[in-house]
């Protein structure tokens, strides 16, 4: 886009600012198919700011690429808009429509401006379309990256929630595992368990695998790593939830659990933990 074309496009936007803004917002609302008074107010503010910034940058001498320093304010606005759309549940296409919905009304005003100058109109329309495609694709790129960050954060939160460490008794912790153990989850398991050992001074940790569907070589290795890490912190581990199928699998895999206490149920493991810590449970006499 040449400097002359920049000036022409900027002038068209400046001369038709209010009506262009109105037509743009109507086109955008029709594409999104959503009506939200609070949302409409915010979109109108963003759209008006975008037109102002666009005119300012088009008035300055630069090329069509939006990667230059002159476009930094426009990129910043579109980045904020794209990230907010992620939080609001909009798709990347809905987000890009913020830009693409401006094409139709803008091209209409360009046709009026050029009149019978078809060559000039064709050149201006082509360069403007390239510019807006860049801006639209930029919002998609930012939206996707922001969405990936949200997904990663949610996955991390789910990992932490799915590996709770609870204190069953003085000096006795329990770590109930549900679902498949992988490397990422094992790391969270170890971190949570070790931190709880430090916080409580526990000497026994019961790792309950009743909710683990299968135990393969990798899961067994993850369990042994967790047990080894706990021992380094001064706590012994008891594995509970050993079902017949899992027992057969462990034997078949040749996993060495000779120095690890294993029990069929969490209750059995808890009784062992009480004995190991010298604790007893006394039932009160019935009145």
From TrEMBL:
InterPro entries: Bact_StressResp_Reg, RsbRD_N_dom, STAS_dom, STAS_dom_sf. CDD domains: STAS_RsbR_RsbS_like. Transmembrane segments: none annotated. It comes from the Bacteria. Keywords: Phosphoprotein. Residues 162-273 form the STAS domain. This is STAS domain-containing protein.
């Amino acid at each position: 886009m040449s400097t002359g074309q920049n000036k022409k496009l900027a002038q068209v936007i400046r001369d038709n600012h209010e009506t262009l803004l109105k037509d743009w917002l109507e086109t955008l609302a029709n594409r999104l198919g959503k009506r939200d008074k609070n949302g409409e107010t915010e979109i109108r503010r963003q759209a008006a700011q975008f037109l102002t910034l666009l005119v300012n940058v088009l008035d300055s001498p630069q090329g069509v690429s939006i990667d230059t320093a002159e476009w930094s304010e426009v990129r910043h606005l579109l980045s904020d808009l794209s990230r907010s759309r992620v939080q609001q549940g909009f798709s990347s296409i809905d987000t890009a429509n913020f830009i693409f919905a401006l094409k139709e009304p803008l091209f209409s005003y360009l046709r009026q401006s050029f009149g019978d100058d078809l060559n000039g109109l064709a050149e201006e329309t082509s360069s403007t379309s390239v510019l807006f495609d860049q801006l639209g694709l930029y919002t998609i790129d930012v939206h996707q990256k922001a969405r990936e960050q949200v997904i990663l954060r949610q996955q991390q939160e789910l990992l932490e929630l799915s590996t709770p460490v609870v204190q069953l008794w003085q000096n006795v912790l329990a770590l109930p595992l549900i679902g498949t153990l992988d490397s990422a989850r094992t790391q969270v398991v170890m971190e949570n368990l070790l931190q709880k050992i430090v916080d409580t001074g526990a000497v026994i940790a019961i790792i309950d695998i009743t909710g683990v569907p299968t135990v393969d070589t990798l899961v067994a290795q993850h369990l042994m790593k967790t047990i080894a890490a706990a021992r380094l912190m001064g706590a012994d581990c008891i594995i509970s939830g050993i079902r017949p199928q899992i027992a057969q699998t462990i034997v078949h895999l040749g996993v060495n659990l000779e120095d690890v206490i294993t029990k069929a149920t969490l209750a059995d493991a808890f009784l062992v933990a009480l004995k190991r810590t010298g604790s007893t449970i006394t039932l009160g006499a019935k009145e």
